[in-house]
Write a structure and sequence with these properties.
ARM-like; 140 residues; ARM-type_fold; 76% helix; mainly alpha; 8 helices; ARM repeat superfamily protein
């Protein structure tokens, strides 16, 4: 199912992007509260990452919620969930200015979560990804 949604977000025509985002993403975001299998949650987060990457500003209404999800899974997910959450966060941070403005308040918390993960996560992959993301939001 995740692959179908990822494929749809890649191939959907411009004229249908808003409708797709409005219909497909809220149930997916909501279901993440109840899914207990880490592999399934990671797949759902991958769908959200792909949607963010391909649908861009059509996800503006969901941007803050997506950042909160990414942070939640970075803090308390399995390794796959943490990596998927980091990808979602990267996609949000690499988005258009309107998305960045929408998530700007959450970037302070993001910096804290990324810093903690980059220093103490048991997974080297997670530490490296978080360190790279941290470099993007920490002033030089």
């Amino acid at each position: 199912m995740a692959n179908v949604l990822i494929s749809a977000s890649q191939k959907i025509p411009e004229s249908a992007k808003k409708t797709f985002a409005r219909k497909a993403l809220p149930p997916l975001v909501h279901s993440l509260k109840f899914i207990s299998a880490p592999e399934v949650r990671a797949a759902c987060i991958q769908v959200l990452f792909s949607a963010m990457y391909h649908l861009k500003s059509t996800l503006l209404p969901f941007a803050s919620d997506l950042l909160k999800l990414a942070l939640r899974f970075l803090e308390q997910g399995s390794e796959k969930e943490k990596l998927a959450g980091a990808k979602l966060m990267a996609s949000l941070m690499a988005s258009e200015d309107v998305i960045l403005e929408r998530i700007s308040e959450g970037l302070i918390e993001a910096r804290s979560v990324l810093s903690k993960a980059s220093l103490s996560d048991p997974s080297q992959d997670v530490r490296e990804v978080c360190d790279k993301l941290l470099a993007c939001i920490t002033p030089s």
